[in-house]
């Protein structure tokens, strides 16, 4: 059993004065304690779970209820866990979404939903896409139903969320480890975009090293995303068109049908990743928490690599 660490400022000061090596050791131990304290709380509350525990808890139920309250992109990246749970259990999966959870973003950045992670309009946009997936039986706003699997626990665990891989966050608290190299979204590709490069770039996660203006030499370019983002991108690509989609199923069809998708670490890229469409990811070097997995996925941080990749895949 590992000895519990109890911070003590007097001990720290004494070591600093009398024993430099023990002082260094104390600081290392204290730093580790701060990082892992939330993880210890999660484990002590028995909130970390396994597939056996989920199956036992749902043994008397005909369906498995999965809870989520995060951003739309987080929900897309959580779908592989739900798909794997469906395959293991053989039971229908219900996705229960809680709206109105507060959103914290950095100064100077904007989010389409303002100060919340999920609202009714976003749920409505998600519904057609989620309903298309055969491993999801139903999706609705949470109304006090029994929860078998909570896919928001990673936020309480204290993980450093600006690094690593969003798609794996729920592996750590659910014990379910699907293959992220395989597609987890299926939609009918829109053939109207077979010759198009499709772009999306949110106002957050912009790599200052990247300039999209060279794309203007391509004839068929279309932007998917909110209008303000399109207006900003059109300043650099005058011939860029905007596709205003009615919901995220339509968005997925456009991406799936395209010759190439280019996006940054925002919702449209999560859809491209789930589809395993031919896709290029603009990496935001300050928060590299999205990693392309599987066939057709490439990322870039520098301009010359960006231009080379576009040349390879778009001609």
Q: What would you say about this model in short?
A:
With 315 residues, the chain is an alpha/beta fold. It is built from eleven helices and ten strands. It has two domains: 51-174; 191-314, Rossmann fold (3-Layer(aba) Sandwich).
Roughly what is the average pLDDT, rounded to an integer? Answer: 91
Radius of gyration over C-alpha positions, nearest whole angstrom: 22 Å
In DSSP terms (H or I, runs of 4 or more residues), the helix count works out at: 11
- The strand order across the widest sheet is 7-6-5-8-9-10
Strand content range: 5-15%
- Give the end-to-end Cα distance, rounded to a whole number of Å: 60 Å
Report the order of strands and helices. HHHEHEHEEHHEEHEHEHEEH
Secondary-structure content class: alpha/beta
Folded structure, characterized:
This protein has 2 domains: 51-174; 191-314, Glycogen Phosphorylase B (Rossmann fold, 3-Layer(aba) Sandwich), CATH 3.40.50. It is 38% helix and 13% strand. It has helices spanning 9-18, 20-44, 51-57, 72-89, 120-131, 153-156, 169-174, 227-234, 248-257, 267-275, 303-314; strands at 63-68, 92-97, 136-141, 149-150, 197-200, 221-223, 241-242, 260-263, 279-282, 297-300. It is globular. The mean pLDDT is 91.
């Amino acid at each position: 059993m590992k000895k519990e660490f109890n911070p003590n400022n007097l001990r720290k000061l004494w070591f600093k004065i009398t024993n430099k090596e023990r002082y260094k050791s104390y600081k290392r131990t204290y730093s580790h304690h701060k990082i892992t304290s939330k993880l210890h709380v999660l484990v002590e509350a028995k909130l970390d779970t396994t597939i056996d525990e989920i199956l036992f808890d749902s043994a008397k139920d005909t369906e498995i209820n999965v809870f989520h309250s995060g951003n739309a992109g987080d929900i897309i990246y959580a779908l592989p866990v739900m798909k794997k749970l469906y395959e293991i259990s053989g039971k229908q999966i219900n996705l229960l979404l809680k709206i109105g959870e507060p959103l914290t973003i950095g100064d100077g950045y904007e989010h389409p939903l303002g100060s919340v992670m999920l609202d009714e309009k976003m749920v409505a946009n998600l519904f057609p896409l989620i309903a298309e997936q055969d491993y999801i039986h139903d999706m609705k706003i949470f109304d006090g139903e029994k929860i078998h699997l909570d896919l928001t626990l990673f936020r309480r665990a204290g993980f450093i969320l600006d690094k690593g891989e969003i798609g794996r966050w729920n592996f750590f608290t659910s014990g379910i480890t699907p293959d992220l190299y395989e597609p987890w979204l299926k939609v009918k590709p829109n053939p109207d975009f077979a010759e198009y490069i499709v772009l999306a770039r949110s106002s957050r996660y912009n790599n200052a090293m990247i300039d999209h203006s060279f794309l203007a030499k391509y004839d068929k370019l279309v932007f998917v995303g909110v209008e303000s983002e399109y207006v900003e991108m059109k300043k650099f690509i005058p011939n860029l068109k905007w596709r205003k989609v009615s919901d995220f199923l339509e968005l997925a069809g456009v991406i799936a049908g395209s010759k190439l998708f280019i996006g940054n670490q925002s919702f449209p890229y999560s859809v491209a990743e789930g589809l395993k469409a031919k896709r290029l990811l603009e990496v935001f070097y300050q928060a590299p928490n999205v990693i392309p997995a599987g066939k057709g996925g490439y990322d870039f941080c520098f301009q010359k690599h960006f231009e080379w990749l576009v040349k390879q895949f778009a001609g």
